[in-house]
């Protein structure tokens, strides 16, 4: 027995008894076929029943904390070099002025 593809009711004759859709129109409005499921390969068999070992995550580089520590150490080094350089500059100017004998 035929059925209506619009409402699913049984069809007698050329029209649906529930919704009144003509049988030829109901046949033309069939739902598109469902898409085929994506291919999924079967799981690989482990040799001798061994359990698979999870792969180690790939290294991404240095952590953000390490980068912050490197930057802070670099700034401290620059500050120390600046203070030492300023001290030598002041000593040089004092020496040029003649306050300190050579």
Core attributes:
mainly alpha, two-stranded antiparallel sheet, 2 helices
Q: Output the strand order for the largest sheet.
A: 1-2
Report mean pLDDT, rounded to a whole number: 78
Which spans of ≥5 residues are poorly predicted at pLDDT below 50?
none
Give helix % range. Answer: 25-40%
* Percentage of residues in strands: under 5%
- Sketch the major β-sheet: 2 strands, antiparallel
Distance between the termini: 120 Å
* Count of DSSP strands: 2
Tally of separate helices: 2
Order of helices and strands: EEHH
Specify Rg, calculated over alpha carbons: 42 Å
Structural class assignment: mainly alpha
Could you say which overall geometry the principal axes of the C-alpha atoms support?
A: elongated
Could you walk me through the main structural features you see in this protein, from its secondary elements to its overall organization?
The chain is mainly α and 102 residues long. Among the domains are: 1-31, no CATH class; 63-102. It is built from two helices and two strands, in the order E-E-H-H. Strands 1-2 form a two-stranded antiparallel ribbon. A hairpin with a 2-residue loop joins strand 1 and strand 2. The model has no long low-confidence stretch (mean pLDDT 78).
